[in-house]
Amino acid sequence: MAAAASSSEGRASSSASAAGGSWPPPLEQWLVAHGGVVNGVELRQVLYPSGARDRLLVASRDHAPGDLLISVPAPLQLRYDNIEVAAEAAADGSGFEGACPKGQEEEAGGSASLSIPPAEAAALLRLFDQMPRGSDTGAPAWQFKQALTILYHLSRGAASPLLPYLAHLPGLAPGVPTPRVAMLMYDNAVDELQYGTLVQDIRNQKYWLRHVGCHLLPQLTGGQQEAEGEGVAASQGVVEGPMAQGRAQEGPRAAATTSGPSPFGGLAVDEELFGWAVAVAMSRCFGLSRGPRPTHTCVPLVDMANHVAPREASNAEIRGGRDGQVAMYAKKQIRAGDEISLTYGTHDNHNLLLSYGFTLQPNPYDGFYFDLNMETIESLVEGQGGDPDTGGLAGWQRELIAHKLGLAAGAGGRGGADGGAESIRVYLSGVAAEAAPKAAVAAEAPAVAGSAAAALDDTPAVATPTGSGPVAAGPVRQPVDPRLLAALRIGTLQDRAWEKLLVGRSVEQIGAWSSLLARQQEISIMQLLAALASALYSSFPTTIQQDRQLLSSASLDVAAAAAAVTLTTKPAASAVPPVNPEAAGAGATAPLSTTAAISNSGSGGEWPMHPSQPGSVTGAAAGRGPTVGSSSSLDPAAAAAAAHARDAAEAVRFRLGLKTTLERSLQAVVARAKELDALKQVR
Ligand SMILES: C[S@@+](CC[C@H](N)C(=O)[O-])C[C@H]1O[C@@H](n2cnc3c(N)ncnc32)[C@H](O)[C@@H]1O
User: Where are the beta strands (DSSP E) in 29-134?
Assistant: First the structure.
């Protein structure tokens, strides 16, 4: 829990605010100057002993529960619905050029116009439409739309009122590296995760990132006809696109599209820059799930709050307000100097790594996932009940399990014929037995993935970005997935008399940790689960102890690499004053190999950013936006070494967390078996 511990752990901590007049302006000041509210909250930078840097929100005075901490009006947020509204209004001739309510432009933007020129909005909307789609929603993936919106505002440079916010984004703000969301990790580190389901998800994300950033965008914005071979992605078809919230597909008209003028002006968007924008979108957007048009939004300053879990550990929450305003409130007493934290959602480490580029140790929402089919259930329960002749599942058990779990009834897990899935993904979790829910899980509301905050009665719900993993983590975990427990309870029954009773019960009721059908049966089930957890643990090539050792040397590597970067980094001569002096030159852990300095004529300074080639951002060519310096501010080899070291350490941390989760699950089932056995003895 790096960030949670950061206030005490950091050896250097100071306000991120630079002296007045420097660039970029402190976010707190910028927000207040343009209609936002900031009450007793400040942004701090923290430097860990490892050399890693991060930022966090800190209370500058005491707060009572319910206090408003930050409020950000819609025009100060970076959100793609603004683009959609502007384009649609232009198309239907209503002449509305931007989503900024009348009268707020001046307030929010100062000299820069909040109106989005109709032609540019229309060009962006066309791009949105070409993005890969989620098969579940059929809509272009929001992460890509938000990334394009971020790049669009970046390309506008001083013409965008959001430039001061952009300058604080990780990867642009000096010393703050781009989050290493899993799709940006090096391949060798991905292999070291030792966890197939996550590795597959990361490969799919990498595929789509490459496809869009490297092929699709250049074609759509570069004046070329769609090239041959681009149908490949669509025909591959098997790509599960977590970024696209499901199975990703090509945009509907991609193959027939002729590119138009780039909405990014002179900003050359390549795979690296696009990857940065997607990582920013994934790691710091809030979902607005209600309201006239669901959208995602980057909310300045509010997006500086770090994540803690479980939910009770965070001291602030987000609420939506009227006119798209997003606000942060204290949800408990906060003392001056406390870190202000949010719970992004009930994310397991799989989701955290995919969406945010870090893991929590321990993570109360973590889970070990595996695919369960009828064959696995059959082999698990063999000899424990069921058909007296074969010792396997009797026909009625198979039917009941298939029906309750939505699985295909065939022994080999042959999906389809009866409408059931071939397999479902289930978990063993690290929830300690004593913390497991006491009531049936069925009593819990179904999870809305990523839902982070209670909505006000009449206002839009606000949620932190959903994790992109394969399983939406629910609000409450029990040590064993209720569906797995239900399957084992049904599969080990000796007596068909249970069938009538179980038919009317939900899978959550049958599989509730707190309930059981018969004590001796439950003891056997716990023994089966203990054997399962042990077998899964043994399938890892390394043990917990080996991982711990590796991690301590990996941490040394990270620190050494960070130190090397700091030593070899030469701040660009023409570089802007950094966000704070400590941050100078420390952006070297960003995965990007070069930096260029971009000057913002409106605010009289330059700050480092990272197009993939120095000088590729040419505001002059576009006749607007940023102009480019050519200073290189870090040693690419040292930066790459630091990124490699960080990835390697994160991979080991992830798999260590997974094994710890399995170990805890094992402890929970063994404890339950013992408890039931002891009860049996007493009676
Ligand atoms: C919404 S941003 C929070 C602000 C961020 N710290 C910054 O400086 O921009 C989310 C990112 O913060 C970092 N983060 C948040 N919570 C964290 C935690 N508990 N441990 C480690 N990193 C965390 C991760 O890099 C994540 O991608």
Answer: 37-38, 41-47, 53-59, 68-72, 78-79, 133-134
